[in-house]
Amino acid sequence: MGCAKSSNNSSGRRSSRQITITKPMPWSHTESINRDQLNKMRDEFWDTTPFYGGKREIWDALRAAAEAELHLAQTIIDSAGIIVHEPDLTVCYDEKGARYELPKYVLSEPTNMVND
């Protein structure tokens, strides 16, 4: 038994409806980067997601959620049936159990970002 926030669904994973999405913890890149470099990293990640496996619709929903405000991101995740394992969306699953990992740089900005 556990509290409602930690209950499991039939696949043994917590449902996104039971986990409130949060912002990722502060992070820093290995070097100071600017907005253009961060956007390039993000674009490269999203362009290569088909090679990581999983369903295209789930990747599209995760991208929409990553780029949205928290309350809208929660709605997107719930509507897509995504199972959230980590509240900051770094680890999620689809209903068939495929794992989706998002790097923090697609979810938030680094603490050491510099102006152009």
Automatic annotation (TrEMBL):
Coiled coil: none annotated. Residues 1-13 have a biased composition (Low complexity). Residues 21-116 form the DC-UbP/UBTD2 N-terminal domain. Pfam families: UBD. InterPro entries: DC-UbP/UBTD2_N, DC-UbP/UBTD2_N_sf, UBTD1/2. Residues 1-29 are annotated as: Disordered. It comes from the Eukaryota. This is DC-UbP/UBTD2 N-terminal domain-containing protein.
